[in-house]
Amino acid sequence: TCIKMSSVDKLFIQGIRSFGSGDADKAVIQFYTPLTLITGQNGAGKTTIIECLKYVTTGELPPNGKSGAFVHDPKLAGEREVKGVVKLKFTDMSGNTAVCHRMLQSTQKPHKIEQRTLDSSLEKVIGGQKVAISSRCAEVDRELIVHLGVSKAILNHVIFCHQEESAWPLSEGKALKTKFDEIFASTRYTKALENIKQIRGEHDQNCKLFNKDLEHLKLQKTKAEELQEKMKEMQQKVDASKADVTRIKNELAPQETRLQELNDMYEEVSSLERTIAELDSSKRELQRSCNNLDKKIEQKFTGSFQELQDFYHSHHIKLEKDERELTQLENRNSQLQRDEEQVKRQMSVLHRKHGELETEDRHHRNRVKSRDSKLHSLASELGLKQFTLSPVAGGCFSPKQVSSFLSKAGQHVKELEDKDARDKARYTNQERALQRKIDELNNSLATHEQTRKLKRETLKKNKMEVASIAKELSRISSSAGQLEDTEEELKTAEKQLKEYLGSINVSKMRSELNSMSVEKRKVDEKAKSLQRELGQLSMQSSARGALEALKKDKRDKERAHGNELNVLEEEVSALDVSLDTKGPGDLSKKLYETERSKKKESEKASAKLNQLNQKVMKVNMEEDTLRKQLKAKQSRLKDLESEVGGVVGERSYEDLLQGIEEECEKLRDDISVAKGSAPFFKKSLGKLKQSKKCPMCLRGFSTDGDYERLVVSVTDRLNKVIPRIVPQLEEKLQTKQKEQRELQELAPKVEDISTLKGRIPQLESELRDTSKSKSQLQREQKEANSENTRLLSELDKIRGLQPKVTRVDTLQKDINSLNTRIQLEQSKLTVGDSSRNQMVVNRELQDAQRKSEDLSTTIDRRRQEIDDHNSQLKSLEDSIHRLKEEKLNLQGMLQTRQTLISKKEDLLALNGTLGSEIESVEQALAPLQEELEERRKEKRKLTEEKETAEVLARTKMQELRTQVDSIHRSTDTIKSYIEEKKTEALEECVSQLGELKTEVDTKAREKRSLEEKIKLLQKQKANAKVREHELEDNIELMVKQQEVVEKEQQVKKAKSELRSKGLDQYDTEYQRLQSKVETLRKEQARVEGHRQGQEEQVRHFERELQGDLYKDVVTRHTSKLVELTTTKLAVSDLDKFYRALDRAITRYHTIKMEEINKIIKEIWIKTYRGGDIDTIEIRSDDETVPDTGPLRTRKVYHYRVVMKKGEVSLDMRGRCSAGQKVLASIIIRLALAEVFCLNFGLMALDEPTTNLDRENMEGLAQAITDIVSERSKQKNFQLIVITHDEEFVQLLSQSDYTEYYYKVSKEVEETSRVRRFHISGLNS
Fold it and tell me: Apex CA 836: angle with CA 831 and CA 841, to 5°?
């Protein structure tokens, strides 16, 4: 199977620690396979690389980087804020390329530096597409661990272990245990075991509670089944009552149907009577209308109705013919009017056009005059004499003359442009000559100045070197006496070293140290034995603790039982229930008997209430019937009054009808008078015109004006007043007749109003009597309901006591159960006390531990004395070495004194020569500068003359071009006017205006002739209309007379139908059916009352079953039983899970520790060159810790590193040298990486040669080389070695596993730089 592996590619650093924040300070390191070497001096920034790798992969800052020191210091950068960026490019376990990016910011506050994280993101390429995960949407740290395939603990403690924490494998016991627990992930599995144990205990406790709940639910289930049975019996009674109601309704339906048929028959009779009354009223109205029309008509038609219609038709045709002719004449008149308006609009358009053409003609003449004036003026300026004379006859220049002038003006402009170009060329040549001279002077001046500058710099440098030599000679002069002092100090130091070597016996101290270590091991073994004995005694002690806990639980239950009993006594004191019982079941039984008694009283009260409910229901039905009848009649009365009142208003119906009839008669008389006066006025007008006298008094007129005014007055009345008044009167008559018909149609409704006003008071009296009877029954019903509610409330209170009684019984059962468990625990305790109790063993254990600690203190003190001796010895040796080097330096300085004196004299002579040369150069510079300034002035003057001449020439040409362009534009406009023939258009427009004026006069004459014909036809039409109205009245009279005859026939037919009904025979049947229906309705009300009472009891049972006590009790009982069974099964499964997981953890730990120790042994033998230690290994001592419950024990591991010599094993902590400590820590980390880093083959070693002597350094180099050689076949294996020791790097480079190495150095700006070099340069 292919193992998925990850690896790192590149690391980007900016703004971290000594790496600057500028773009030039970026550092990029590429990690090679299988070996990457990084070297540099101390403080250059090598460890920062390890810190950045750890930070980017785990998100954790280094130990000293949380206070703002991890980001580049803002003070060094000279900025208020500095951003630090770390990027890592790597390949994840799936083979995809990914980049992790982290950014921090450091801000300089007034008194401190504040550091915070800005962003963390992970970007990877999957299938050619980028996928980004930021800290805002996922856990980047968790994602990185998944992609790299290694735990966070391995990254922190093994792969990227910080230099300050690299010796953690030899730390004190608690810290070492924490590290190994994190590496083995023991905490997670231990927590899993604790969770399993806790869940198992909770389920076990739940089983006990479920058993108690199941007993209570069983009682409630039995009670609920009894209530279900009673509710079923009552539901059967309800169904029987419903069947009786259905039967009664079936009997009642045909009786009510027949009764309704009889009511419908009475309605038909009433309808016939109303029809007869309406027909009589309509016939009378028609007769009145006929009389009125008879009086109105002056010329009655004597023929038949058909002849009258034919005559009216022929008259109507003649009238329509006249109207069509009149319409044609009016249309022709309108057409003439439109034609006249159209011609006038055309004339208006031509008038506007004429004005525009006249304006353009005037502008054209002005434009020609202006152009000729400009041409004449410009010709004078240019000296063109052939154009300076006045224009030729005709008032303007010809087009040929204008064209010739424009051509000559263009030539003149071209001559000016050529002259300007020649002037520019002349000035340009003069400027170039001056510029060449200036450039030559500038070059000569620059050469002299450069020579002076170089000589001055050389002179300054020589003076500084002379001062330095003088200072060095002064220091050498004082070193002669210092050499003697150094030789004396060297002798004294060598003497002190010899004396110190003889003062202490180190071998004896090491022997004492070994004997004390043996004694400490014996004391530790004794302490372990005492701990095991103490554990056994603790188990006995835990049994006593469990017994005390049970007794305390029993006291709590007894206290709760007493409190519940007191509360229960207070609540049932009014129910006469005795609580002086001996067993837990008696109280429940007494409560059940009281509940049954109260229930019987409640059932009796419910039966009485049902009877009253039936009576109230019956009275309600009677009251509803009366209310419906009263409401229907009141509504009918209101509708009729509203309908009649909307027409009649506040007046009486009879008075209103009579008043309208009188108004109709008056209007008919007025119409007859108006129509009859027309012949009178015609005759009178004829007589007036014949005799010139008044037709009434037969007197003559004093003046012609009186005669004319009377003729005009009579003519106006005849032709205007009478034709206008008659239609108005007829329209009023039609309106009044319509109102009359509406009032006549309301006659039956007025009669119904009178009948209803008599019946409504009777119904109101019957309703009041029924309401009194209802009120009495409701009072009785309320009292019965109150009594029933009281009994139900007491019954509910009794049932509400059931949970409290159940709790009291439960507490009593718990107390009995606790008594049994207490007896069982007491039987487990051993009889009698041991002579060695827990206190004695504990005291012995404390003595042994105290002695072990004293021995450890003494051992540490002796080791410290040896370390101090070694340190002092090394200090003395270093002092002697320093003094020897200082002596050699002083001797070398005395030998160089004569050389420095000779060099000083040479420099002083050279400085004198340089001073003379500088003075000669400065003297040559003055005349060159003066000549250069003169030439520059000449050039500036020439440039000013050139610019002035250019401005004058440009201005003159611009003015000439402007005048010529103006003449061009005017000439083009004039030419365009002539080509468009605007003069001919003006003449044509004048001609068209004359033609249109003649057409308008012709139309006006024709229009006046038509208007005279229209007036004549309108007069004839008015006379024909009067005759047509008279014929229409004759037709209406004949139609109404025929309607009167038809109404008489309809009245006779309705009276005959009314007599044929024979209503007397149906009265007896109606009374009998009404009595039978009333009896059936009472029976229905009685049965409905019984049914409602029974349904109320069913609902009461349902409410009781739906209450908290019995609702879903079967489901709850079944659910609780299932829950109990499954919980017991879960407890059994959890026991199995716990034991299986515990065994698996133990097995996994044993296998891994064997692998780790095997690798440690192999590397130690290859690496360590001393003979005092054969090998080292990690010991994991497992301790069985006692626990409570069925899972009684669990294992805890303690770790320590031991060194072995033969068969003897000693704790390495506190017994090894600094070099052994470093070597052991590196080897342990290499072994852990070999075991736990299968997917991520990276290992970083920071300063691995610290405190190692040369032999062990070479051994470590050889071991690393072997590891690289063995794992180089693994494509993701990467080893990063960071060291300041270039000799160690050379040893590693001999393996040929890398071509390059990186060197970290500090620049002048105190920022770190990373450079790559070929490995061959290091070996050379």
Answer: 135
